[in-house]
Amino acid sequence: MNFEGDPISFSASFQKNPAVLHTLNTNANVDWMTSLATSVTTGGFQIAQEYAETSTLNDAVTIATETIGWIAFETGFGMIGENLFIIGHYDDGVSNGVGQTQFIINLFGYENPPDIVVAVIGENGRDGSWARGSGTYSSTNQGVYAEEDQRSDVERGHASEPFAWAAFERNTDIILVSQQPSNSPSVAPSSVPSLSASPTGTPV
After folding, report:
1. Per-residue pLDDT tens for 69-81?
2. Distance from C-alpha of 203 to C-alpha of 74, rounded to nearest angstrom
3. Residues 18, 43 within the same domain
4. Measuring CA to CA, which residue among 162, 159, 142, 183 is closest to residue 15?
5. Counts for the chain of helices (H) and strands (E), in that order
6. Structural domain contains residue 198
7. Nearest to 41 by CA among 162, 158, 145
8. Is 96 helix (H, G, I), strand (E, B) or coil?
9. Within its chain, how far is the Cα of 175 from the centroid?
10. φ/ψ bin of 50: left (φ > 0), alpha (ψ from -120 to 50), beta (otherwise)
11. pLDDT tens per residue across span 128-168
């Protein structure tokens, strides 16, 4: 697909591609709408509205102006006070639509399921998609589907999409935030294992 959104440039470049989370902050459209980020690089990305299958050749959608919120995180893991965070992005190369293979985000170091936000950061499928939980949710795993609507057809299968996520210990307060991306790696406690890329969704 040839997706074109509004270009966003970071005030300073990341060392590696960040995890970008995004959402619509307003509700001006009559038809269903969500947000989509694509073309994520160390210097920026593209952001736009995603109407999925709510528009067909015989039922065109009038798109209203919306405010889209987003946040970009360095990938990795570490501690905020005594609270663990894990941030990453990955594309497992497997069809992740509803009824297909769930995308699994591997977690570690949590006693309870963390607060986790996941977003789609690509457009490989032609019908559009957004991230939704698959039902797998624990202290060690979060399952996600690339969900489609059923406006123009009933199937919900979807191509593999890249997902971005940020997991935080419950009730974590982020009170010290840099105004620019840090060039320093995240510091993790010695009890936390190192990360490596894997087909099950470990941060890269």
Report:
1. 999 999 999 999 8
2. 11
3. yes
4. 183
5. 0, 12
6. no
7. 162
8. coil
9. 22
10. beta
11. 788 999 999 999 999 999 877 555 555 555 678 899 999 99
